[in-house]
C-alpha cells in the first residue's frame, strides 16, 4: 500500500477517538464511501449518516442547491461539491463533512471527462475542494472505491493538520 494512504481502519479509529460528527454526501460513488465507513464496528459514535444525491433533482430537493448553480457549473464541479458538503453539514449539524461528485465513466458527462471527480471536505467552518483525475481505464467500481478511499484520506489529513 502507498505510504501516503492511511488505512481505513486507522481513519475510523481516529474518528472514534475524536468523537466528531461526520456526514457524507455522495453522487458518483453511490454510497461507496458510506459503505466503507459502515464496515467497521463503533462508527455510530461519530457517523451521522450518508446521503446519495445522484441526480440534480436530489441535490436540489435534499440539499437545497440552487438549480441556477447546477445550470451554471454542472453537477460535476468544484462549486457543486462545495455546495453539497456545506449544505449537508449545516442541515445535519455535523462537525465534518465529505462530498463526492464526478464521472465514473465510461462516457463523458456534461463535457466532463471520465475519471474527473471533486471531493469536498468541510471542517471547522472551512471547505476545501480537491480535484481528482482518476485513470480512465479503471472500471466504474474501481474508480468509486479509489475515490472513496482518497476522500477518507483527505478528510483524515485535514482534521489532523497533515499536509
Automatic annotation (TrEMBL):
It comes from the Bacteria. InterPro entries: CinA-like_C, CinA_C. Transmembrane segments: none annotated. Residues 9-158 form the CinA C-terminal domain. NCBIfam families: PncC_domain (TIGR00199). This is CinA family protein. It comes from Candidatus Ureaplasma intestinipullorum.
Amino acid at each position: 500500500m502507498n505510504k501516503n494512504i492511511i488505512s481505513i481502519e486507522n481513519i475510523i479509529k481516529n474518528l472514534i477517538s475524536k468523537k466528531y460528527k461526520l456526514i457524507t454526501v455522495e453522487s458518483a460513488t453511490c454510497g461507496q464511501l458510506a459503505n466503507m465507513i459502515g464496515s467497521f464496528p463503533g462508527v455510530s459514535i461519530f457517523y451521522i449518516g450518508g446521503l446519495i444525491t445522484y441526480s440534480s433533482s436530489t441535490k436540489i430537493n435534499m440539499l437545497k442547491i440552487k438549480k441556477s448553480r447546477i445550470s451554471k457549473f454542472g453537477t460535476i464541479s468544484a462549486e457543486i461539491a462545495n455546495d453539497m458538503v456545506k449544505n449537508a453539514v449545516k442541515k445535519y449539524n455535523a462537525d465534518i463533512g465529505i462530498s463526492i461528485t464526478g464521472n465514473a465513466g465510461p462516457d463523458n458527462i456534461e463535457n466532463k471527462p471520465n475519471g474527473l471527480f471533486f471531493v469536498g471536505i468541510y471542517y471547522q467552518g472551512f471547505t476545501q475542494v480537491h480535484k481528482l483525475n482518476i485513470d480512465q481505464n479503471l472500471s466504474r467500481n474501481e474508480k468509486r472505491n479509489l475515490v472513496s478511499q482518497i476522500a477518507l484520506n483527505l478528510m483524515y489529513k485535514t482534521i489532523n493538520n497533515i499536509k
